[in-house]
Structure formats: structure tokens, C-alpha cells
Automatic annotation (TrEMBL):
PANTHER family: ARYL-PHOSPHO-BETA-D-GLUCOSIDASE BGLC (PTHR10353:SF136), GLYCOSYL HYDROLASE (PTHR10353). It comes from Massilimicrobiota timonensis. This is Glycoside hydrolase family 1 protein. The keyword Zinc does not apply. The active site is at E382.
Length: 482
């Protein structure tokens, strides 16, 4: 038989949950940590919801033992977290900060103590500000060497204990928000040319990091996490089907083809040429991208929502920097690329208070597409619901989150039954945390954290929500009881 068809979730399935350094740690200048681009960006008036910062976040830096203990009591199999580059190299390069290395040593050892598999993201958006000051960060090819040097330091220090590595979190999001929408650092808008150049640098950093890891630890498992929004054609009109094809090539395959095949999709490249925005590549780059792609073990997928593609007239809507960051339903706006596609709302699907569509079948779609196109295993590295939660009599009842996760896990099981190899499912997020642009009121966690937008609010105490106990059961029954 060509492959062993699995029945339900495999016995070694990694039930997990995820976070990112900037969103949970706090301790923004503790123990020699350097300043990151986000430490700086959040201080620009108007950039984040009610001027929230990650200065204190949910204080995971000081409370990681309490958080890990709760994970252990829940039975979590894997915890995905990211490392803050600025704790390891406060200036991005140069001298290493032993106290920073020690923090993650402690965290990893604490997880292993309870048999929780650490899954480490090398880069989840918080770049050393010093590199921005030295050479404009991702805009310069110089970042590739600094990134690989940083990653190798992590592999040297933790490679004996960490088996799962994610090189990069949502390259498509941090680059489009950073250079097209002006909503992430460095806050540039509509700079297509730089956007594609930055992405090429990030691709080279990813690829060289994969090669370095496999040289040091050939058995390690590695991939990148991609924010994957599968796309439906608006209707059966051929021009809308073509809009979907354009969307897929430019918004999905542009990244995933590089991770999996080591090359850019041809039609997207042709479009970039027509616009004069192709990235500059160096001799040998293609070879490196291909070698790394051959060594990648899985596609990391952060799945939240699907979208719709409809043909967009040459005079139609462009990229906007307006989003619903307040939780006031119905305030998001249609965006698009003139001459190609736009992304109207999908009337068939409900939405969250932040106007994200809720579409459980989309997670199955992600797995199916990755399986058919790349034949790679999938790690769901994020999936979850951002919602307003309330404490009532010391408890948090979040049936909406349970319903959301249940429906997604059911579809994930179908994907496995379809023959997709799914290695892990990490919810977003473990504790409540800072939602980059949406403050602390948009909560995702299994564990409620007592704090609000104001930096001095709350006790930071942890309260497991109803979903915490529900997921504990899911893990215990390996997904049989949902
Ligand atoms: C992903 C990121 O984009 O989605 C996370 O990897 C982020 O860091 C999550 O928090 C949810 O997005 P948001 O904007 O609701 O916080």
C-alpha cells in the first residue's frame, strides 16, 4: 500500500498550545535584554490599541514555572514558544548575553521535567532595534548572517533538548504589515519593491538556518510557520476563478513554494516583473533555497480564517491600513490588488468580534492543499479564537472558544482521515497575552490572566478557563472526546 491510512489522531500526536516572546514575557529590559523593534514601535502614538505595550505583558518571564505547571496539569504534549533575539544578542550581533540564554535553558528544562516537548520558534517578529539602526534590519542582506549566527547559538545551546524548530513565524504577515500596510515596524506603506526584497532576505535567512540546523542536528525537525488563509473564488464566473489563482500565487504559494520547493511561483514572478518589483537575488541563492527545501520536515500552518477572491478592476481597491482592532464588529474594510483581486466578506460564514471569519473546514483545506501540492507533513502551529472573556465568581466560562476549537479539531481529524500527515495541533494561545495591535482585551488563552490595557492594571493572576478543562479531556482521550 502506498501509505498507511491512519484512523483518527496518531498515538504520538502532539496536542499543544503556543505563544510568542513579545506577547507573553514582559521583562522587556530585564537581565541585559536589548531593545527590539517592537519595544520601540509600540511607543509611537496611535500604533497599538490604547497604546498597549509588551513591557510587562503577562509576566511569563517571571512566572514561567507557574505557567508550565498548569500546562503539565493539563497534560499538554508540546508547548510552542519563541525566543527573543534581544535576550540572546542584545545588539543583534556581537556579544552574547548569558542571562538570556539561561532563561530559555530554564524554560526548556522546566518543560522537559514534565515531559512537554518544547517547540521553538526562532523568530516571532521582535527584531533587535540595533540592527534596524545599523543597517535597516530586514532591508539589508546583512541580516542573513546575523540571523543565522543567532539561530546557530540557539542550536548549540538547546539542540540537545529541542527537537522541533520553527525558523520563522508568519513571514507573510510581518513583511506585509511592515512594508505595505505600515502597521508593524518599520511602519512603511505600499513599498512593493522593498517588500519583495525583504522577503527574499527572510527566505535566505530561513534557508541558511535550516541548513545550519541539519548540519548540527540531522534528526531535528524543522519548518517555517505560514499564516495560511485558503481562498474561495467569489462565484463561478471565470474571472473570479482567475482572481483566486492570482491570490493563491501571490499570497500563499509565494511563500509556501519557497519553503517546500525552494523556488518562487512562475506566474507571480512574471507579475512582479511587470510591476518592476522583483527582488534582487545573488548567485547561488536558488541552490541554497532548493537544498533547504529538500530538508524541511513539515509545513507550519497558522490557521485562523479563509477568504474570498473576486476580480478587482484596475481602478479598484488597494491595500489599506484599516483593520478592526477594536472588537467592534463590522468595521473591517475590503482590500485588494487593483487589476487582480479583492477580498470581500463571505456571507456564508459567521465572524468574530474582530471580523475574522470562522470557518472550521478551512483547516482541513490547508492540510489537503499542502498534502497535494507539497506532500509534506503539517504542524498546525496556531489556531484559536480571539474573544472578550469575563470572570464570574472566580471562573471564566468560554463555551464559544470550546465550540470553535471543537469544530476545528473535528475538521482536522477529517484531514487525517483524508490521508494528510498532521504531526501537531497548537492552539493560540496558552495563556491570554498581548494581541499585537488589539491590546489585552482580545483574549485567546486557555488560562485567563488578570490584566487589562493599562500597564498597572490587574494582579496578573492566572485562572484556568472552562476551555482549559475541556482541552485536558481532549488530550486525555487523544481527540476521541471533543
Ligand atoms: C498570528 C500571530 O498572526 O495570529 C500571533 O502569529 C497573533 O502572534 C495571532 O497574536 C492572532 O492575531 P491577533 O492580531 O488577533 O493577535
Amino acid at each position: 500500500m502506498y501509505f498507511e491510512k491512519s484512523k483518527g489522531f496518531p498515538q504520538d500526536f502532539l496536542w499543544g498550545s503556543a505563544s510568542a516572546a513579545y506577547q507573553v514575557e514582559g521583562g522587556w529590559d530585564a537581565d541585559g535584554k536589548g531593545v527590539s523593534n517592537w519595544d520601540k514601535f509600540v511607543r509611537i502614538p496611535g500604533k497599538t490599541f490604547k497604546a498597549t505595550t509588551g513591557d510587562k505583558a503577562v509576566d511569563h518571564y517571571h512566572r514561567y514555572k507557574e505557567d508550565v505547571k498548569l500546562m503539565a496539569e493539563m497534560g499538554l504534549k508540546t508547548y510552542r514558544f519563541s525566543i527573543a533575539w534581544t535576550r540572546i544578542y542584545p545588539n543583534g550581533n556581537g556579544e552574547v548575553n548569558e542571562a538570556g540564554l539561561q532563561f530559555y535553558d530554564n524554560l526548556i528544562n522546566e518543560l522537559l521535567k514534565y515531559g512537554i516537548e518544547p517547540m521553538v520558534t526562532v523568530y516571532h517578529w521582535d527584531m533587535p532595534q540595533a540592527l534596524e539602526d545599523q543597517y535597516h534590519g530586514w532591508e539589508s542582506r546583512q541580516i542573513v548572517d546575523d540571523y543565522v549566527n543567532y539561530a546557530k547559538t540557539l542550536f548549540e545551546r538547546y539542540g540537545d533538548r529541542v527537537k522541533y524548530w520553527i525558523t520563522m513565524n508568519e513571514q507573510n504577515i510581518f513583511t506585509s504589515f511592515g512594508w505595505l500596510k505600515g502597521m508593524h515596524p518599520p511602519g512603511k506603506e505600499n513599498d512593493m519593491k522593498t517588500f519583495y526584497q525583504v522577503n527574499h532576505h527572510a527566505n535566505m535567512a530561513h534557508a541558511k538556518t535550516v541548513l545550519a540546523l541539519k548540519e548540527m542536528y540531522p534528526d531535528a525537525k524543522v519548518g517555517a510557520s505560514f499564516a495560511y488563509s485558503p481562498c474561495y473564488a467569489y462565484d463561478r464566473k471565470p474571472e473570479n476563478a482567475m482572481a483566486k489563482a492570482d491570490y493563491d500565487d501571490l499570497q500563499n504559494y509565494w511563500w509556501m513554494d519557497v519553503y517546500a520547493y525552494g523556488r518562487y511561483p512562475r506566474s507571480a514572478w512574471a507579475y512582479l516583473e511587470s510591476q518592476g518589483v522583483t527582488p534582487q537575488m545573488e548567485d547561488g541563492d536558488e541552490d541554497i533555497l532548493k537544498k533547504a527545501a529538500a530538508l524541511v520536515d513539515f509545513m507550519g500552518v497558522n490557521y485562523y480564517q479563509t477568504c474570498v477572491a473576486e476580480y478587482n478592476d484596475i481602478n479598484g481597491v488597494g491595500m489599506t491600513n484599516t483593520m478592526n482592532n477594536t472588537g467592534e464588529k463590522g468595521t473591517a474594510q475590503v482590500q485588494g490588488v487593483p487589476g487582480l483581486y479583492k477580498n470581500p466578506a463571505n456571507d456564508f460564514l459567521p465572524t468574530t468580534d474582530w471580523d475574522w471569519t470562522i470557518d472550521p473546514m478551512g483547516i482541513r483545506m490547508c492540510c489537503r492543499d499542502i498534502t497535494s501540492r507539497y506532500d509534506l507533513p503539517v504542524v498546525i502551529s496556531e489556531n484559536g479564537l480571539g474573544a472578550f472573556d469575563k470572570v464570574e465568581d472566580g471562573q471564566v466560562h468560554d463555551p464559544y472558544r470550546i465550540a470553535y476549537l471543537k469544530a476545528h479539531i473535528e475538521e482536522l481529524k477529517k484531514a487525517i482521515d483524508d490521508g494528510c500527515r498532521v504531526l501537531a495541533y497548537c492552539t493560540w494561545s496558552y495563556t491570554d497575552l498581548l494581541s499585537w495591535l488589539n491590546g489585552y482585551q482580545k483574549r485567546y488563552g486557555f488560562v485567563y490572566v488578570d490584566r487589562e490595557e493599562d500597564e498597572n492594571s490587574g494582579t496578573l493572576n492566572r485562572i484556568p478557563k472552562d476551555s482549559y478543562y475541556w482541552y485536558k479531556k481532549v488530550i486525555e482521550t487523544n481527540g476521541e472526546e471533543l
